[in-house]
């Protein structure tokens, strides 16, 4: 391409416009990355958060993905602490709808039994040694093509299946 030809100026303007659009786009991407690094604004990737609750017999702490994107692996971690230890199985209930947009291989360690009702997946774990029990899920968000927020409730259930302690949280799924 020679710019001294008749249509050379038009080609030059097109090239400059393309450079301007490309550089603006790249600058915005870098600015968004700097914004996320300097603040808590969820722009890229995965952001995690922790919620906890306790009563006289148990403390429940859940580390969860506050924001995640499709095809990224993140962790849902539930920790139950009892000062008296565990002489009975640990029974956890988690909202079934929360797990729907994720691919998972199940909890680690595996539950000894699992049931479900209309709203919850109820998992029973053998009594752990000591006074702390932890279970983790590796979750991979399915690509959804839109912004979506899923809500969850995790509860420790007593022998009568009534919640002893529970927490609620939301995860924002991004395309």
Can you offer a commentary on this structure?
The protein is of the alpha+beta class and 175 residues long. It has two domains: 1-44, no CATH class; 47-174, Sandwich (Immunoglobulin-like). Helices cover 20% and strands 45% of the residues. It contains two helices and ten strands; from the N terminus they run H-E-E-E-E-H-E-E-E-E-E-E. The chain has helices at 8-38, 96-99; strands at 47-54, 59-69, 73-81, 90-95, 102-104, 113-116, 120-125, 132-141, 148-157, 163-174. Strands 1, 2, 3, 4, 5, 6, 7, 8, 9 and 10 form a ten-stranded mixed sheet that branches. The longest helix has 31 residues, at 8-38. The model has no long low-confidence stretch (mean pLDDT 87).
In short:
By secondary structure, this protein is an alpha+beta fold.
Distance between the termini: 41 Å
Low-confidence stretches: none
**Helical stretch tally:** 2
| Extended strand count | 10
- The averaged pLDDT comes out at 87
Helix content: 10-25%
Biggest β-sheet description: 10 strands, mixed
Apparent shape: elongated
Taking all Cα atoms into account, the compactness measure Rg is 24 Å
The count of domains is: 2
β-strand percent reads over 45%
Tell me the quaternary state.
Answer: single chain
Secondary-structure element series:
HEEEEHEEEEEE
CATH class of the largest domain, named Mainly Beta
> By helix and strand content, what is the structural category?
alpha+beta
The CATH architecture of the largest domain can be given as Sandwich
Q: What is the CATH topology descriptor of the largest domain? A: Immunoglobulin-like
């Amino acid at each position: 391409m020679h710019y001294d030809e008749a249509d050379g100026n038009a080609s030059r303007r097109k090239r400059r416009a393309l450079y301007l659009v490309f550089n603006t786009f790249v600058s915005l991407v870098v600015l968004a990355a700097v914004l996320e690094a300097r603040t808590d604004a969820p722009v890229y990737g995965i952001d995690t958060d922790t919620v906890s609750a306790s009563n006289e017999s148990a403390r429940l702490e859940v580390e969860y993905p506050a924001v995640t994107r499709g095809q990224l692996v993140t962790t849902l971690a539930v920790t139950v602490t009892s000062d008296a230890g565990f002489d009975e199985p640990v029974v956890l209930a988690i909202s079934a709808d929360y797990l729907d947009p994720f691919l998972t291989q199940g909890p680690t360690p595996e539950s000894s039994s699992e049931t479900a009702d209309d709203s919850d997946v109820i998992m029973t774990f053998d009594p752990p040694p000591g006074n702390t029990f932890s279970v983790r899920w590796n979750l991979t968000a399915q690509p959804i093509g839109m912004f979506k927020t899923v809500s969850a409730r995790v509860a420790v259930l007593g022998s009568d299946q009534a919640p002893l302690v529970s927490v609620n949280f939301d995860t924002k799924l991004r395309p």
